């Protein structure tokens, strides 16, 4: 089954863009997934092909019209999930990415200007999605992020089936740090445990570093998923606990 992605955008020429290179590009060529970029302006109803209008209640900028958006969505709707890229959406998670990648594909609606008329979310089953707490010029780059995250998980895209098994966020933790040759570089040496050949010790070290790095860089992840008590104590904490016994 081919994973099918349809992007509704005012700038279809932006696609496939980066998705046409590397793993995603190769998978696109091999037919593992398919991409259609549809111009929202094709669903405008006036001779000027207008897609936006001034915001009700006043204010700066323009707002994408619900009738035009509905026409575009209805023109491609076929049961696949509909996602709208907007900073007002729920943050994209690796868990949601895996759910989407396991399906038949998706329809992605790219915002522009001040955003969407809110009534489109009331009238159609659209999932608002955000890729971060910042604002871009439009939803196209966000759509590429969502697609790249999903496509790399499709069967046959990554070289090894295990490549996606131990990654950041899969256990609500950041991924452990990686090392490769040379063993010593600029006076810095690969940790001895990684050269020991003891797989149990290596696994324990990697988990410990994942917990430590998450506590340091993204404590919100641990807090969000049950608090620090859900994660094994870090090396420093264990040393302190041993001394206090």
Describe the structure.
The chain starts with a strand and ends with a helix. The protein contains 8 helices and 9 strands. The chain folds into 2 domains: 3-151, 3-Layer(aba) Sandwich (Alpha/beta knot); 166-243, Orthogonal Bundle (Trp Operon Repressor, Chain A). The longest helix has 19 residues, at 199-217. Helix 1 links the parallel strand 1 and strand 2. The chain is α/β, with parallel strands linked by helices and 245 residues long. Helix 3 (94-101) crosses helix 5. The chain has a 5-stranded parallel sheet, with helices on both faces. Strands 3-4 form a two-stranded antiparallel sheet. Strands 8-9 form a two-stranded antiparallel ribbon.
């Amino acid at each position: 089954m081919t994973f099918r992605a349809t992007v509704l955008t005012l700038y279809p020429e932006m696609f496939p863009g980066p998705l046409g290179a590397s793993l995603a590009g190769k998978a696109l060529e091999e037919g593992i997934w398919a991409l259609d970029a549809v111009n929202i302006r094709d669903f405008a109803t006036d001779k000027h092909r207008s897609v936006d209008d001034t915001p009700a209640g006043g204010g700066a900028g323009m707002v994408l019209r619900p009738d035009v958006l509905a026409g575009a969505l209805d023109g491609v709707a076929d049961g696949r999930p509909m996602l709208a890229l907007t900073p007002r959406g729920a943050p994209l998670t690796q868990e949601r990415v895996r759910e989407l990648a396991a399906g038949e594909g998706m329809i992605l609606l790219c915002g522009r200007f001040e955003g969407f008329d809110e009534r489109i979310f009331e009238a159609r089953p659209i999932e608002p999605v955000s890729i971060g707490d910042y604002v871009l010029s439009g939803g196209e780059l966000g759509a590429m992020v969502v697609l790249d995250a999903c496509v790399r998980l499709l069967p046959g895209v990554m070289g090894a089936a295990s490549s996606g098994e131990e990654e950041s966020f899969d256990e609500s933790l950041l991924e452990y740090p990686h090392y490769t040759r040379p063993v010593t570089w600029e006076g810095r040496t690969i940790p001895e445990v990684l050269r020991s050949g003891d797989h149990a010790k290596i696994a324990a070290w990697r988990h410990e570093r994942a917990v430590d790095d998450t506590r340091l860089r993204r404590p919100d992840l641990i807090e969000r998923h049950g608090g620090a008590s859900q994660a094994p104590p870090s090396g420093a904490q264990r040393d302190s606990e041993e001394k206090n016994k």
